[in-house]
Structure prediction request, 406 residues.
Amino acid sequence: MLTRREALLGSVLTAAAVATISAMPTAASAKDVAGLPREKVTLVAPPFVHAHDQVAKGGPKVVEFTMKIEEKPVVIDADGTQLNAMTYNGSIPGPLMVVHEGDYLELTLINPDTNTLAHNIDFHAATGALGGGALTLINPGEQVTLRFKATRAGTFVYHCAPGGAMIPWHVVSGMSGTVMVLPRDGLKDDKGKPVRYDRIYYVGENDFYIPRDDQGKFKKYDSAGDNYDDTVKVMRGLIPTHVVFNGKAGSLTGEHAMKAKVGETVLIIHSQANRDTRPHLIGGHGDFVWEQGKFANPPARDLETWFIRGGSAGAALYTFLQPGVYAYEPQSDRSGRTGRHRALHGGWRQLERRPDDAGRGAQGDRLLSERMVVQPCSSAGLHRKSGAVPCPSIPYSLSASLRLPR
Prediction:
């Protein structure tokens, strides 16, 4: 079990780095931003994104955000499996923050005294100071404000990085999110022509490592630190027990389905802070895809599948031309597995079983790749297959819905 004292020792690990960095000039000093306008933004939970201009109005400004770190138990599947989550603003992933190139992103990070662990934030969009990680490590009851200039356009992961073995544990416990830095004149296609989106959704893919007891059942713990030793043992096996969109199985289905209308252009931001993934839109394509998430590079066109590297975020733009069912899923390696398809609600779900010799626990993990279904809003039976029955609820689940009415 990780004690409170051991967790707080993270501040000692970074003390030398902070001392060194504090002697260096900062690119985002108070005098640099003294005359700039300020905009205070209220963050919203994914898959939604706060209101923002796609093309910047006026010159650079300081965009102010506030995030509160929350340690809390989260149920991540229909069987009641509990993750002792560490979160930014209570959501997994943390909120998407949007600024324009040349703006200053200013974040006030709060670690309430109700938490038990030290936390910080490492912005892949920032330059120097370990992405801000060396300057933002705070114990429970503390808060810190960090400001940096957004000098590169694109989508960038942020995550907790308190030092050493704490880093991967905090990341796979839910502490990651994305910053989108838009070009000041907006997104451009591969020919340099402007492109716009009618809607934007943020999909964060997470892999979780929940320990099991001697009977093969998932264990529960009283607090975030209590599961450290057991969780690290599962992590070292490199086989997640759960892989989900937006924090839990089914988080983007049913009443929580993402919605769009025929003819609308949708921008999907997809992040994975830990492992590689390959999103694929069944029934559609990536009209324009910034696979590496960097808007200074021309987007690829008409992709069927795109590659999101672990520790990064990408962006895909698609205009929906027809109502019906579209499925969004990672195309994982299926070699050596058996599987079957079952029709449900106009989409397909694939149940994959691991080989017997994979050695994944007493009962064996069942792998479900539940594809993101885009369901019609009107005619209930429009795309249904007769005799369809629900797929079983199983731990390894990637699921989302996006509804298009006729």
